[in-house]
Amino acid sequence: MESARVDDRTESPGDEIGSRLRTERERQGLSLRKLAGRLEISPSALSQIETGRSRPSVSTLYGIVSELGISFDELFARGPQHTTSRTPTRHPRTVLGEEQIVQRADDRPVIELESGVRWERLNPTGERDVDFLEVVYDVGGASSRGGTFVHHAGREYGLVTSGALKVTVGHDEYELGPGDSICFDSAVPHRLETIGDEPARAVWLVIGRAGSDARATWAPGDGRPAS
After folding, report:
1. Contact yes or no for 126/70 (Cβ under 8 A)
2. How many whole angstroms separate alpha carbon 208 and alpha carbon 211?
3. How many CB atoms lie within 10 A of CB 158?
4. Partners of 183 in the β-ladder
5. 206: number of Cβ within 10 Å
6. Which ranges constitute the DSSP H helices of the chain?
7. What is the pTM of this model?
8. How confident is the model over 3-46, as pLDDT tens digits?
9. How buried is 5 (Cβ within 10 angstroms: 0-12 exposed, 13-18 middle, 19+ buried)?
10. What is the DSSP string of 56-89?
């Protein structure tokens, strides 16, 4: 999964994520053991994430940011041109001030997760309660290990652009190919995993994860808040 881009960095995204999580935990005065207990994982597992020796699963990362009350935007590492000593190449169509509204493909902030999952942020600036991502699931990749599920506040919208992805929502399974899309309540336990022998790519939008976006509570089909 684009290993050349990862190898080019002097510090991996996993290292940066762990360091930022540790800094925030310490700032809040939480011990490693106390936060690990809240997450129902071992202190050793949390320590390995904080030191960059292992990457968190999607479900563990959701749990950590929820417990610490931080946004994903605070964890995203910048693209490769910000983490190497090489002089960055200016995109030929770059215009003054575009960084507020345009995200160039070669400079996306990224998060590398365990189980062969990569998130690339598509919005040029962080937005509270909006996660706009291209998600890459490597062959055999899944949102969490051991068949476990993820659930959190918000509503999700996904569009598969290549490969095949199995999305399980509650007790229902859906196999999605290029051009297929899906939307569902994020509070329902769900799991995403690759089907077949090629990576799956999808554009993913999550709104209301932190509970402050009223659109996440709109009743499907009417465009208005649910009563």
Report:
1. no
2. 5
3. 20
4. 157
5. 21
6. 3-7, 13-27, 32-39, 43-50, 58-68
7. 0.79
8. 333 344 444 555 688 999 999 999 999 999 999 999 999 999 99
9. middle
10. --HHHHHHHHHHHT--GGGTPBP-GGGSSSSPPP
